[in-house]
Structures are given as C-alpha cells and as structure tokens.
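Field: sequence (string)
Field: structure_tokens (string)

Example rows 1 and 2, in order.
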Amino acid sequence: QVQPTFLGVKSEGPKLVPFFKATCVYFVLWLPTSSPSWFSALIKCLPIFCLWVFLLAHGINFLVSHRSASRILAGLIFSAVGDAFLIWQEQGYFIHGLLMFAITHILYSSAFGMKPLDLKAGLLMGLVSSSCYAFLYSYLSGPFTYLVAVYIALIGFMGWRAVAGVQLCNDLWTWTKLSACVGAMLFMVSDLTIALNKFCFPVPYSRFIIMATYYAAQMLIALSAVETRDEEDFRKRS
C-alpha cells in the first residue's frame, strides 16, 4: 500500500513547482502589512491559487468523482478569500477572515471523513484545544470570547479527523494521509501563533512562523486529495 502512494506523491512534485515559486515570491517581496493593498492580497493568495490549479490539473472528472478532493478544493477557495480579508484585518475584517477559515475547516473535516473514528485521538485533540482556549480566555473580550472558542473547536475537530486517518498503529497509513495529518498540525500551529500574537503578546518572527506553517499546511492538505487517483493509476499500471 505504501508503494503506490509513494510513487504517486513523487509524481505530484512537478505539479507543485508553481506553488513553490509563488511562495518564494511572497517571502522575497515581504510586502509590509502596514499598508494593505490589492497587490499585497494577490501576492499573499497566489500560492493558494496555485494549489487550486494543482487540484484542477487532475481533471474535473476526478474532482467530481472524489468528494474529498472537491471539498479540499472548496476549502482552498474559502482560504484564499480569508487570506484577502486578513490583509485588511486592522480595518475591521479580521472576523470576516475568521469566518472564511472556519468554513475551510468544516470542509477539510468533511473531506477527511469520520472513519476510522479513533476516540483516543479525539480526546487528545480535545484536551489540546481546551488547553489552548483556557490559556487565551483571559486575553479575549467581546465577541472574540465565543468566536475564538467556536473556531478552536472547529480546527481541533479538523485536526482530529486528520490524525484519525493515519492509523500508524494498524499499519494502514499512507503517505498522503500522513501529509493530511502533518498539514492539519501545521495549520493549528499557524493559527495558534496568530491568536497569541493578536490577543496575548508579540511573538518574535510571528509573520514568518504564521505564513511558513500556513503555506506548508495547505500544500500538504492539497496533496492528500490526490491519494485515490494515485492508487488507482498504480493498479492500472500493474
């Protein structure tokens, strides 16, 4: 089982070249966040646009026949809208971005599915999420008190579904399920850094940490969507 997915992941590499180039452009330009513009929004969203193209390159029929892939694509679309909103977060659009990413996590959770259930992983993720909210709680006020709680619950649930899919103990894991798991964890690190930096205290190199983990997370989650096609292609070649 590992062999077909490993070959599949290897074959996806060239399709991700535009994403890596767009990510380099973002970090090289490093446009100031103090002066938001449509150009800075474009540069920030460009790597996510490249992940749209990465999934669309596998064909519309693939996306239509594999609901998990189409849901991940939808999640990437909402992510790009969220990224644009966060460019203007100081102008009052932070909550709009939060909403877009909340929808993204719902879509990703749906893509990862509810089987296997793995209640132990769910309990662990629940404890981690509760601990994060307990730490943030005293720094929150107004609508953020409950909005952040809902958001943490959603991203924690998404993380649970990604971790549950790996099944390392049962030797049923695949490289792409592992990439979904690592991607979900990186997404949580990125969002926790945002929360700490916005509500609690300045985090050194916060923007670099947030964006590096975010882009890596989105790439790994997008990569997890192509697992089914890779395994089918391997069986046909065999």
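Row 2 begins here:
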Amino acid sequence: MANKHTIVLMQTSQNRSTRTFMDYGSITQAMDGICGLYERKLKELNPATRNITYDIADLYNFIDGLTDLSALIYDHTIQAYLPYDRQWIKHRVFQHLKKLAN
C-alpha cells in the first residue's frame, strides 16, 4: 500500500480559504509531508531554537488542531481514490515514524 498516489486534504482553520491539498507519489511521502508541515510550524514558532524535538503526542495535537485533515489514496484495483480520515492518518504517521526510528 506504500506506493499509491496520495492526496492530502487539509484545512488549517474555520476560514474556508485555508483549504488546500498536497499531492504525493506514495503514502510514505505523504506521511513525511505531514511531519514536515508540523516541523516547519515548530521552526516558525521557535525561530531562535536550533534543534527542535517533539514526540508523537505533540504531532497528534497538531493534527487534531487542524480543522480538517483527510487523505485520498488511489486504489489500482478499482481505479478510484479511497478516503481515509484523521485517525487513519495519525495511525499511519505513527507507523511511519516508528519505522524510521528502527
């Protein structure tokens, strides 16, 4: 399931103009992209801090703080995109980071 085209749909606030999407070649790249969004936000909030660390709870709080977050993943067998919710994304991000840590 890792090399499936993935579109991440995100809305950062109640303002509809904050709706956006990010396009990735795989689920792994999408999970990297979501982590990267959080890391950029941390750098923006802490510009003087050189090394910023965070744990999974911090990342989950970031994800839960978004007004909306979901993913559309292309399934070749049905030739269509299947939707996945915030909880699925949190699970996949955790699995992704766990794999990177090993």
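free_text_note (row 2): The CA atoms of residues 19 and 73 lie 18 Å apart.
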